[in-house]
Amino acid sequence: MVIGSNPADATVAPAANGTTDMDTTTPLPTLETAAPSTSLPEKTQPPMENEAETLRTKLEELQKRRKERMDEMVALKSQQGKRRHEYQRLIALCCNVSMDQVDGLLQPLLTSLGVDV
Hints:
Helix content is 51%, strand content 3%. The chain is mostly helical. Strand 1 and strand 2 form a beta hairpin. The longest helix has 49 residues, at 47-95. Residues 1-54 are annotated as: Disordered.
């Protein structure tokens, strides 16, 4: 005797004679098992980790380039002060004035040369 309305969910109760009332010609439903999932090889990293590593490498390269350019800029700036001092000295010698007076003479000198500042 079958208990329940859905044959797939039914339970079989034994009959009075010890046998079950289930039709033995109907095949029982089978459970289909899913195919085993394919896992990534151990050495392959997920895409996010690959992208993160690529970005880390790029960041390190950019930081290195930035440091090199900053060092170059500092070197150029330090030369600029030296160069300015040399020009002041040259102007002072040519105009027969002290180096302290050169800054005050720049506007009159440029005007006499016809340069608008």
